[in-house]
Amino acid sequence: MEKKSTIELKELDEETLFMVSQTFKALSDPTRIRILFLLSQKECSVNEIAEDLSLRQSTVSHQLRFLKNLRLVKFRRAGTSIYYSPEDQHVLSLLNQSIDHALHD
């Protein structure tokens, strides 16, 4: 039996449709998936992400800017350092479900 959505399709406005499509766009990039997955494990600075994932700092900064603009990650300042973490659990839930699906036999 199919679970009915609490929101009917006709109720989705253009802005909501755009944000949903952008969220899936964010999750369609392997580098952004790796960054989000790492941030789901621990809060990190740009340098930590670059080191842990063997990426250039400029690549990490670019991807974090993209994720931040979509409100998928947030940051906090601690002295001169900036630390990133997931904005909330919604996108992490999508990410984890997608990973579970990919690993399912």
Automatic annotation (TrEMBL):
The keyword Transcription regulation applies. PROSITE patterns: HTH_ARSR_2 (PS50987). Pfam families: HTH_5. InterPro entries: ArsR-like_HTH, HTH_ArsR_DNA-bd_dom, Metal_resp_trans_reg, WH-like_DNA-bd_sf, WH_DNA-bd_sf. GO terms for molecular function: DNA binding; DNA-binding transcription factor activity. Residues 12-105 form the HTH arsR-type domain. NCBIfam families: HTH_metalloreg. This is Winged helix-turn-helix transcriptional regulator. It comes from Exobacillus caeni.
